[in-house]
Specification:
About 40% of the residues lie in helices and about 15% in strands. By secondary structure, it is an alpha/beta fold. Helix 1 packs antiparallel against helix 2 (about 30-35) and helix 10 runs parallel beside helix 11 (about 245-255). The N and C termini lie far apart (about 50 Å). The chain is globular. A 7-stranded mixed β-sheet has the order 4-10-9-8-7-5-6, with helices on both faces. A 4-stranded mixed β-sheet has the order 1-2-3-13. The structure holds pyridoxal-5'-phosphate.
Amino acid sequence: MSLIANHPPTAELQALDAAHHMHPFTANAALAEKGARVIVRAEGVRLTDSDGVELLDGMSGLWCVNIGYGRAELADAAARQMRELPYYNAFFQTSHVPAISLAAKLAELAPGDLNHVFFASGGSEANDTNIRMVRHYWARKGQPEKRVIIARRNAYHGSSMGSASLGGMAAMHAQGGLPIPDIEHIAQPNWFAEGGDMTPEEFGIACARELEARIAELGAHRVAAFIAEPVQGAGGVIVPPESYWPEIKRICAAHDILLIADEVITGFGRTGHWFGSQSYGIQPHIMTIAKGLSSGYAPIGGSIVCDEVAEVIGGDEFNHGYTYSGHPVAAAVALENLRILQEEGVVERVRTHTAPYLAQVWAGLTDHPLVGEAVQRGLMASIALTPDKARRAAFAAEPGTVGLICRERCFANNLVMRHVGDRMVIAPPLVISTSDLDVLIARARVALDETLEIATREGLMRAAA
Ligand SMILES: *Cc1c(COP(=O)(O)O)cnc(C)c1O
């Protein structure tokens, strides 16, 4: 417990939080009873809570603090920009230096002819933009009926009406009247849970062929685009079989369907390349970006758009935009973040050094009795908890019961690791050292041991029928 604090005591903060603060994706009444953990500062890969306890952040906040915490250069960039020009917009034939510079920088970094950027404040907004943009694109090409967007079950594309409709989260669709019309969902390439007796490669092809079957069902003349995360993040870090993306690529090209890669998590070094699309040899028509774009230091996102789509959209007025599209302070922070990622060789270091190391130590977790598979791509990874490895079985208990126990044991051991159902996921800051990866693995092992003990005691180690 630190003796000098710049904040009220934890109990007081928790009481105010419970009384007034509605948390996202949270059962607020239950949290109020327990009290939220209050994070007061952070440095590098470590968070400090209001009791002075240090945690290793295995999640980069929400998959976003790629560059790590505490980079004064980003704070200075924000302060400088706020003094010079805190706000202006690009709506009515004006522009400003940070948005211009950031758009040009992104065009340089993004592969191929992805040369045009439409800014938003985050990934949800950017995906809403994408829905409107691809539909408007086909309408301007004389095919207004080509408006269906195909996405995948258990995908995450954001939380606004449009982006959550693209997403395939059943629990989200169950509230608020989602999805909006003309969004279709096909299978996710989650071999561990859904692959049955197929090999991963067979299953990857089978999942991709669902796209072709759905296009045939709907008629290609009605399908505007397919959207997918190169590696699913919030769905549980689902790494697709190697056969999956080449087949998706073939199908989109064969049927004249736009491909939208949602790079909100996989962008900016997460997979060891600047974009996940490069890891899989994909050349999408549009990429959704956010999160690592500013390393979470300021809210900014956007769509990077290929020449052809930008040209067609640009032919008349696109009746769409956000007050904070390309916000100068957020753009200045993002630029500084990209400068550091590039000049310090952070992405290369992930590719050649930390990701190969993580691959090795993460795979080692499969010797634990609870762990059915361990998968990794770059610095994102997951393990599937199971009561029966040989059968890749799910637990008989409600999905997420054992995952939540494990997450709480991680927390108790000063490691932030998230659970998605009964998968445990990590996506640490890209600047993490191999010795901190060792700390992460050691804490995860203790948490897994404690989880196994609790699950056994509580009779949770039974497989679903
Ligand atoms: C987080 C996320 C989003 C939504 O981004 P927000 O900034 O929260 O609106 C969209 N797509 C993916 C893949 C994400 O992980």
